[in-house]
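Data card: per-record layout.
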Amino acid sequence: MRIRVVTYFWIFFSSIFSFNAYSGIILSGTRLIFNGNQNETTITVTNPDKKSYLIQSWVSLDDKKSPDFIVTPPLFRIDGNMSNVLRIVLTKNTLSQDRESLFWLNVKAIPPSDPDAKDTLLIAINTKIKLIYRPASLVGKDASDAYQELIFKVDTKTQQLVASNPTAYYINLANVTYNNNKIESPGIVAPFSNTKWSIKPTGAHNSVNWNAINDFGGITSTESQNIN
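The structure for this 228-residue chain is written out next.
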């Protein structure tokens, strides 16, 4: 007797492009801003394939499911060439009101199994995009300018470049160069916090160039700063 083995792998992605498209499903954005003056926000899931998928969705924080949000529907089938809307609902408003909070929206696409196939390998793709809660007190202000407020300095003792964020917004850096040397994967600078990168200081006069990813997934213009 032959035993049919079906194995699922979870693959995680985060993208800075205009749309997310992995193994069949497309999300209508690369990040989601949840405005604190609203009870919910939405994102569209589209399946351009001919085959159907089972879609499972949830919000996570530190790789654990967050109790602060629910996603509806949490589990549904999406047929080929069809779309469906996910509603992300805030369950309780106990989040910080003086700064943004960062979560992750997970949308996992599970492909159908073929009953006639033998020893089938199925790959379930979990697409993760940033979900940023923006308190009502910050809604309406120009978050797109926050990256311009970054303050850079060089810590010569630790040989690190330090970026300090004096704003209440998460700043998702796209590119950072120090004296024309590119910082690989610069990452995020959290509100009222800092991020550090190891460098090799080259002298008394240093320069930093940087840009960021805005609310719509686009790249901002480049800012420059001289460091004495």
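Known properties of this structure: The CA atoms of residues 128 and 228 lie 40 Å apart. The radius of gyration is 21 Å.

See the next section for split statistics.
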